[in-house]
Specification:
Helix content: 25-40%
Number of strands: 11
Low-confidence stretches: none
CATH class of the largest domain: Alpha Beta
Largest sheet: 6 strands, mixed
Shape: globular
CATH architecture of the largest domain: 2-Layer Sandwich
Length: about 350
Amino acid sequence: MFYVPEAERNNKPVYLDGNPKKAYIRRGGRDDTCTGDELIRFIRDASTTRHDSELLPDFDVEGCFDASTVRWYRQRHAERNPGRYDDLSDVEFLHQMACIAEKQRQLIPTRAGILIFGTDAAFRQILQRPVVDVRVYQEKKEDYSAEVRWADRLTPLPEENLLKTWQTLVSFYGRYAEHPFAIDPGDLRRTDDPPDYVSFREAAINLLIHQDFGEQTLTPTILFFRDQTELFNPGDALVSREQLIDPGEKPVRNPSIVATFRRIGLSDQAGSGMGAIFASWRRLGNVPPIIDNDKAEKTFRLILRKERLVTEAQLLAQANLGVNLTEEEAAVFAYLTRKGQIDLADVKALTGLNQ
């Protein structure tokens, strides 16, 4: 048996004889030749120039940005940075936000700028697929099949920029949350949040800002079932599962988009989003979220199961064994009784401990 370490992102795809057409991808126990689409995905992720920072000279900076979205963002930004940039025009402000760049004395919008602030017409030109498809099912996941029709669906959103999409997502979620609520679109934070709002908020924002916007065939989805919420994204995470949970800076696919969201508090501190999801789910007493980071297919799936981790049967088992476990030990014990094995990443997910 041989262990071959994974190639670094900037060294992919791996190919023979200096010929990219002989690029291979590892799937389970075999090596498959990359398809054309797979090859493009690897090359896009390997580039030192991030896809979202690309300049789009065909767009006019005076007409490609949605004024209401820019106004909404500037209000949120001013609340966190009073007095800063107040005297700037919208174009000057977006230049400061790195959503517009200067090249040869010409101001040119970036891809991130149009994805975040673009008009519907401009947005449609650079993203032909829906930003996200959201469906609600009355069934449990185990009862779901392709024949089961959704109970409600958020019409796919191919025409709205990311900030508009986020506001629409929150309103839709508010109707089906455990404690339905209405939310001020200018605020998006409330003191009476539903129990799972933090997890949903971070997971949904992660889906919006970390997806592969160069992928035009696969559509991100959020599926609400009675017993779980499932989020799917084109574009794998660029780090391991354990690194995702750990705090600290991490390489991201869309650094310009991520930075713009974080400036107004949409997405918590750098590198803490996934940790916040796990921490919130842990406080609810649920089994840890499931991460499926498929580096071969370059997709990412997050499953939030509404299932208690420590059950009465497990508490009874502890009592029969005559042990007195701490909260962290009880969580690990409960997980072991379910799965039969555990690794370091599982322990971190279950306890919130980093050492």
